[in-house]
């Protein structure tokens, strides 16, 4: 549980997708520690319920919904359930994602579809579902999770992954322009080399090699990601919108 004492999210409800583990779960724990009510979702029921129990053990109010963000109806139902439970939505964090290693030749039509459907269309579905609510409130914070490969290209996963994350970066800017007049901000983080389940295909040798290429000489942690996402979800960042912030220990700078 976070040891932070600030209460930046008192009275706020946050939806966090892909939050049964990793970055999303850490963010949920940190946000409830600062006063938020959280709506978490994922596709694996067992670990989702484990995350809910852990959040509630720390005193947080939590709704857990099994949701595959590749399906718009499931996203809409999850958002509606959140509103029914907590009254409204103030914050949306589009954290859920898919990363599957494959060469160009190995990238099947199914893998292309699943990568784009989850990493890009799922983000779009979430934004579309909360927009009427946030417009009515004339307030909202949307935080998207991209990747540095969305900026520089990628040769280590599948070329569809970099394309999907590049799309998220552009979607962030488009959303910021469209929703800014309603008091809604939309920003994005671009991580690299974060120790999460998505990096399960990296062995210890690979981790050491990647860390050596980073100026700070270490891999990222879920806590690193959570602190940045909380800043972007808070009123401390109220004059920042449409930005994609690198968080990679200096590996990629622009």
Give the arrangement of secondary structure elements.
Layout: E1 13-17, H1 22-33, E2 37-42, H2 45-57, E3 62-66, H3 72-86, E4 91-94, H4 109-137, E5 140-145, H5 149-152, H6 159-179, E6 184-191, H7 204-212, H8 222-233, E7 244-247
Parallel strand pairs: 1-2, 1-4, 2-3, 4-5, 5-6, 6-7
- Helix/sheet category: alpha/beta
The CATH topology is what? Rossmann fold
Main sheet: strand order: 3-2-1-4-5-6-7
In N-to-C order, the SSE pattern is: EHEHEHEHEHHEHHE
Mean pLDDT over all positions: 94
Examine the secondary-structure arrangement and name the CATH architecture. 3-Layer(aba) Sandwich
Task: Give the CA-based shape.
Answer: globular
Supply the number of structural domains.
Answer: 1
Distance, first to last CA = 33 Å
CATH domain class: Alpha Beta
The CATH superfamily turns out to be NAD(P)-binding Rossmann-like Domain
Tally of strands: 7
Total number of helical segments? Answer: 8
Low-confidence stretches: none
Helical proportion, percent range: 40-55%
Main beta sheet strand tally, sense and closure: 7 strands, parallel
Rounded to an integer, what's the Rg over CA atoms?
17 Å
Strand content: 5-15%
């Amino acid at each position: 549980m976070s040891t932070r004492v600030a209460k930046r999210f008192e009275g706020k409800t946050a939806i966090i997708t892909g939050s049964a583990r990793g970055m999303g779960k850490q963010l949920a724990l940190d946000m409830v520690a600062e006063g938020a009510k959280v709506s978490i979702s994922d596709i694996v029921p067992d670990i989702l319920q484990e995350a809910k129990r852990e959040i509630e053990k720390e005193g947080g109010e939590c709704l857990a919904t099994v949701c595959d963000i590749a399906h718009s109806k499931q996203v809409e139902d999850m958002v509606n359930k959140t509103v029914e439970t907590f009254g409204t939505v103030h914050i949306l964090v589009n954290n859920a994602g898919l990363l599957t290693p494959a060469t160009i030749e190995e990238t099947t039509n199914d893998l292309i579809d699943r990568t784009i459907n989850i990493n890009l269309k799922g983000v779009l579905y979430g934004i579309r579902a909360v927009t009427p609510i946030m417009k009515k409130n004339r307030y909202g914070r949307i935080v998207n999770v991209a990747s540095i490969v969305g900026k520089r290209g990628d040769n280590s996963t599948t070329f569809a992954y970099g394309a999907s994350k590049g799309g998220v970066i552009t979607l962030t800017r488009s959303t910021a322009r469209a929703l800014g007049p309603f008091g809604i901000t939309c920003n994005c983080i671009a991580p690299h080399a974060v120790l999460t389940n998505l990096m399960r295909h990296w062995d210890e040798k690979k981790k050491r090699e990647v860390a050596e290429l980073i100026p700070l000489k270490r891999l990222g942690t879920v806590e690193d990601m959570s602190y940045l996402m909380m800043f972007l979800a808070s009123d401390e960042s109220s004059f920042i919108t449409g930005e994609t912030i690198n968080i990679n220990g200096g590996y990629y700078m622009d």
